[in-house]
Amino acid sequence: MLRIVVNQTVSILKSAMVGFSQGAAVHSLSVGIIALSLTALGAFGVMVHQVSRLADAWGRDLTVTAFLRADVPGEEVEKLRGRASRLRGAMGASIITREHARDRLRMALGARADLLEGMDDRVIPTAVEVELSPDATRDDSAAVAETLRGEEIVEEVAWGEEELRRLSAVVNILQLAAALLGSLIALVTVLVISNTLKLTVLARREEIAIMKLVGASDLFVRLPFLLEGAAQGMLGAALASGTLVGVHQLAAWRVEEVLSAAFGPVSLGGSPLWMVGWLMLLGAVLGVVGGLVGVSRFLKV
Amino acid sequence: MIELYHVSKVYGRAELPALDDVNLRVDKGEFVFLTGPSGAGKTTLLRLLFLAEQCTRGQVLIHGKNVAQLPQSHLPVLRRAIGVVFQDFKLIETRTAEQNVALTLEVQGMAHSEIGPRVFEALRRVGLAHKRSSLPQRLSGGEQQRVAIARAIVGDPVLLLADEPTGNLDPERAVDIMNLLADINARGTTVVVATHDPALLERYRRRVIALENGRVVSAGV
Q1: Is the separation of the CB atoms in B30 and B190 below 8 Å?
Q2: Pairing mode, if any, of strands B31-35 and B190-194?
Q3: Which of A53, A149, A253, B48 is the one with CA 20 to 30 A from A12?
Q4: pTM (2 decimals)?
């Protein structure tokens, strides 16, 4: 039985290769269109991935700062620091004294630090700064901020809630757009592959009828077409992957430069090699689905 | 070998059936002619026998198995026991003679090392071993029909069906082909040949089943 399966597999592979070479022009066109579609999808996927990465990194750098009322006794501040450091999502908490805050401000102002000359230190409040753990969610951050707001000695709480919310919204929109674009491209790819294979099946209709006449099973007749579809999808995916990796190598440093100038140090990471595996898998799956859609109706001969 | 009981076949919404209450029997090892004018139902009857169609009513038994009730998935295995030859040869134009013949064995999952010798033997039997590498368009009509016969017999079928196998050939080539079919029958294969050529019936003098308007008008003896 195993021998029969192996022998039939060899015949099916040969048949698929013959089919692919016989319809080389149509298959090449199809592979080109698939490559273009998957390049667009891959580029969008890389963009969404990078924005998500940046958003995550930014989220992890967040701290929640509680500015205290004036003249709170030191032991009260210390107690608050202790309570804050034990909150869910907090990794630790530290007290930012007026002097410490002033130094930070001076560093942030840099060459314009002279603006602080003559400023009364009392206008700078003492603060407790809560450092969030890397796995803290946005809800955890919000809960920390809310708890601190409820403290009697806390005047005001600041954290990058609004910025984070905006960034999350952008990421969500991009992810939704990626899902929609992905579905559209998947549909286009399936249609392209199925139509190419329909042409192939029509051209080989007589051959298929003869194969069935001499006792070929439906699977024996269908599999070469599914393999042709998978090969088309994977070749298209390979071209798309090569394009994406190449463009990333050429342009990533320039994009990093532009983003870093606008938002501070930004790293886009290495080549999107993780995308290659996904695109190849997607190409193969779409190819097989295209094959199924394309040939099912035409094989009833 | 073949038994038909009250078999009728109606295509779509046609008013007249292509086959109407056909009863007949062909024994193992027989050589039978199926004859009648065009539209008599010869091809439809053969199509029922090689499982390209299902009858509308009745029972078709091949080797004691009612093929009218056979699930679709069982058809390929049964088809491998039946060789079929057509008037228009039905060879794959892009495959050589030996590749056309090998197809029958490839679909069965036979090892390629076994296929080669068997294909050569089948082509030798039909006198075309020397043209095994030729594409169909490089062969004459008679040679193409011989390749089709080699393809039909390479799997050692128990039944060989031929639908007007000499219809596209000149009389001399027609006799060659008929001699070949008679030889195959002499080796034990049941052969059913559909033809409307009275010269062949006269020359070979085998049992003749005559059809007219889808009905058996004579089943011979």
Answers
A1: yes
A2: parallel
A3: B48
A4: 0.67
Residues 6+ apart with CB under 8 A from B31: B181, B182, B185, B190, B191, B193, B204, B206, B207
Chain centroid offset of residue A299 CA:
39
CB B102 within 8 A of CB B119: yes
Closest-approach residue (CA) in chain B for A14: B106
DSSP letters spanning A79-117: HHHHHHHTSTTEEEEEEE-HHHHHHHHHHHHGGGGGGGT
Q: Measured at the alpha carbon of residue A213, what is the angle toward residues A208 and A216, in degrees to the nearest 5?
A: 70
| Residues A55-100: tens digit of each pLDDT | 766 666 678 888 988 888 889 899 999 998 898 888 889 998 888 8
At residue A300, the 3 state secondary structure works out as coil
> Are the beta carbons of A178 and A282 closer than 8 angstroms?
no
Over the stretch B114-147, which tens digit does the pLDDT of each residue have? 999 999 999 998 889 999 999 999 999 989 999 9
Among chain A residues, the shortest Cα distance to B160 is held by A214
In terms of Cβ atoms closer than 10 Å to its own Cβ (0-12, 13-18, 19+), residue A58 is middle
Name which of A4, A211, A218 is nearest B103 (Cβ-Cβ).
A211
ipTM for the assembly: 0.84
- Cβ atoms of B20 and B217 within 8 Å: the answer is no
Position of tokens 């029922």?
B48
Among the partner residues B80, B92, B155, nearest to A210 by beta-carbon distance: B92
CA–CA separation, B164 and B87 (whole Å): 5
Element (H, E) at A194: helix A161-203
What are the tens digits of pLDDT across the range A238-296?
Answer: 999 999 888 888 888 888 788 777 766 667 776 677 788 888 998 898 888 888 887 77
- In 10 A of CB A126, how many CB atoms? 22
Q: How far apart are CA A283 and CA A286, in angstroms?
A: 5
Q: How far apart are alpha carbons A96 and A65 in whole angstroms? A: 9
For tokens 């051959």, what's the residue?
A: A207
Closest chain B C-alpha to A177 CA, distance in angstroms: 44
